[in-house]
Amino acid sequence: MRTQSPEPAAPEPAAPRKATPRTVVSWTLVALVGAAGWSVLALSRGEDVSAAWMVAAALGSYALAYRFYAKFIAYKVLRVDRTRATPAERLNNGMDFHPTDRRVLLGHHFAAIAGAGPLVGPVLAAQMGYLPGTIWIIVGVIFAGAVQDMVVLFFSTRRDGRSLGQMAREEIGPFGGAAALVAAFAIMIILLGVLALVIVNALAQSPWGTFSIAMTIPIALLMGFYLRVLRPGRVSEVSLIGVALLLLALVAGRWVAESSWAGTFTLAPATLVVWLVVYGFVASILPVWMLLAPRDYLSTFMKIGTIALLALGVVVALPTLRMDPVTDFASHGNGPVFAGSLFPFVFITIACGALSGFHALISSGTTPKMIQKETQIRMIGYGSMLMESSVAVMALVAACIIDPGLYFAMNAPAGVIGTTVQSASAAVGHMGYVISPEDLAAAARGVEEQTLLSRTGGAPTLAIGVSEIFSKVTGGGLRAFWYHFAIMFEALFILTALDAGTRVGRFMLQDMLGNVYRPFRNVSWKPGLVITSALVTGLWGYFLWVGVHEPLGGINQLFPIFGIANQLLAAVALAICTTLLVKSGRLKWAWITGIPLAWDATVTLTASWQKVFSSDPRVGFFQQRSVYQDGIDAGKVLPPAKTMDDMHTVVTNSTVDGVLSAVLALLIVIVILDAARVCVRHVRRPALSSLSEAPYVESKIVAPAGLIPTRAEKAEEAERDAVGAARD
Predict the structure, then answer these.
(1) 580 and 155 in contact (C-beta within 8 Å)?
(2) N or C terminus: which one in the chain shows less Cβ crowding within 10 Å?
(3) What's the mean per-residue pLDDT of the chain?
(4) pLDDT bracket for residue 18 (50, 70, 90)
(5) How deeply is 569 buried, as exposed, middle or buried, from its count of CB atoms within 10 A (0-12, 13-18, 19+)?
(6) 252 or 13, which is more confident?
(7) Quick one: CA dihedral 678, 679, 683, 687, positive or negative?
(8) Are the C-beta atoms of 611 and 561 separated by less than 8 Å?
């Protein structure tokens, strides 16, 4: 239904709370803790700096942002309405639309958005030093990433859970909307392929991790049936059962790895590709209550618990940041982990930890179809993104407390450092860092690995940092346990984003096809969901297969395009949000998304230009293609390629990456320009504008806005229970 765009009516305001002296003192202390952390990080000049100051700066900033900035946006700008029924309540069908307890949904949303980016990106960006990454992760999430997630979730909830691309088509117009639909879907496929590649790198040849991850599927199915059939609404009970079974699976994984079953769960990368594609397909067609929501909720316990313990371990162990605040690679752009200067590539590489377009797909995919109340948007949208940013901070801490020589030996490809500890030691020495062959061998033995050289992708580096912190608290004898625990933790972290992302990709494709064949618009239409799920998993499975067999290293080659695509998608989301703010009568607040949009577009389009047109073959895809094609023409095999087939693979992949980068950048420019046209037209002639917002329906659901109900919310719940009891 399309309606004119009047100034939205404000919801019933909450009773203002008067600040008490205790509240003022509490928030002043929080501000001082954050300020102290920032001061130490920014003003250090060669002194040892504890990682605890990074944690203090992050937590102090997050608390202030959530309490004041997020609340201002939710209630003053968006004007969330607790009396308005959400799509989950109005369209409940038990398949995709299903009112979900806020605690379970928070777990699902956080698990779905927190994929590879906040773990891998900051680890790779540590090449530039700890300070640039820290600033962007914290400042970026407060003013850009969390704002985007919350605003997209709000507008999608008001539009029956419409996907990002479909909202663009309806609100911007057919031209810019078509560009947004194509760009969003193409970017989604790239993101899912790279997410899956990180899982393959983490689980390949690891029976412990593979078994533990596999066991989370039957555990989640049990939890889903427990909540749906056996004991509806008993979230606390099922949480205890799920956590106990998850811990048992973790312990049993080590038993399996040391037993005769180890071979069964020791899988080659190509085999893992097949299993991941099968899992993605099945997970995307099952009802949300059966596998997706309980599995994500289950994994959230492990994610949040591990990150909280890691932060506590930093405070207890007080490890020193051994990486420089800003390294020479930041200005020279010749880093061994990824090529390119600090601007724009540190922002592109960190990606999800500060601003992520992928989140906008979840916020306009599964979550708006499951949220109970509009008032929960602040906690789930803004709060989940702050949680993810804290993951990114801890990943950066883990990468920066280990020996820099070990860091570069682990993250540089074999073509740079060789395959022996002797060659790696020499190569790292040429970079300006010192680590002996004996130290490299000892580091591998300490975590019961044959080698740590060229373990690219970020996951092993994070695991080394985690084992370093935890072993200082629990003793060095558990270093190997903590390392393998962290590897499994990362795989679980990312897999939950993969299944939710596949489902969202299915929604997007159904929206696109629904413009041609109307039955596809019903996202729960079974023939449509099977066809689109198969297409989505097949497409990202192709990128996964390419990444596994990439001679230059799948992560090294694909993560830059992952970061660029992700940030380009964020530009689409922010452009749509800005347009909707303008069209819905909130012009004076359009800067809230407009400023992040301007920054993101500048950074990402600059990176796209360099990846397409740079004359440096380590940066520019087409220049890289030219170099390897010249090698083929001359009959030469250029390292790190080992055969002529590898040379042809590099040429093909570089061509595909270059074309994708150029096409995606062009599509995003079209979306931004068309969105600007719509905004200008609305300001000049508001009567020509219309909104596709669903009509108001009064909500019958009573549910708190946050994790802990307020006194008024408890009274409202008690009244509801009393009415229900009297009716029974």
Answers:
(1) yes
(2) C
(3) 87
(4) low
(5) buried
(6) 252
(7) positive
(8) yes
DSSP code, position 227: I
Q: How far is CA 358 from CA 93, 168, 179, 498, 559, in A?
A: 26, 16, 17, 11, 14
**pTM, 2 dp:** 0.86
- pLDDT (tens digit per residue) in 78-121: 999 999 999 999 999 887 898 999 988 998 888 778 776 788 88
Q: Which residue type occupies 324?
A: D
Containing 690, the helix (H) or strand (E) segment is: strand 690-691
Separation CA 392–CA 396 (nearest Å): 6
- CB-based contact 272:214 (threshold 8 Å): no
pLDDT tens readout for residues 530-584:
999 999 999 999 888 877 776 665 555 666 777 888 899 999 999 999 999 999 9
The size of the chain, in residues, is 728
How far apart are the C-alpha atoms of 54 and 48, rounded to whole Å?
13
Look-up of token digits 């489902």: 503
Query: What is the spatial distance between Cα 141 and Cα 62, in angstroms, rounded to a whole number?
Result: 9
**Is the sign of the CA dihedral 302, 305, 310, 316 positive or negative?**
negative
Distances (CA, A) of 279 to 74, 358, 502, 541, 544: 37, 20, 10, 11, 14
Decide if pLDDT at 695 tops 90. Answer: yes
What is the CB-side half-sphere exposure of residue 268 using CA atoms within 13 A? 4
d(CA 293, CA 221): 10
Tell the burial category of 28 from Cβ atoms under 10 Å away from its Cβ (0-12, 13-18, 19+): exposed
**Angstrom distance (rounded) from CA 695 to CA 692:** 9
Helix (H) or strand (E) holding 343: helix 342-350
Can you list the alpha helix ranges (DSSP code H) found in 515-553? Answer: 526-548
Q: Which residues pair with 691 in a beta bridge?
A: 3
What are the angstrom distances between the C-alpha of 231 and each of 222, 224, 228, 237, 239? Answer: 11, 10, 7, 9, 12
Tokens found for residue 419:
């395959």
Q: Is pLDDT above 50 for 10? A: no
How far is it, in rounded angstroms, from Cα 185 to Cα 191? Answer: 10
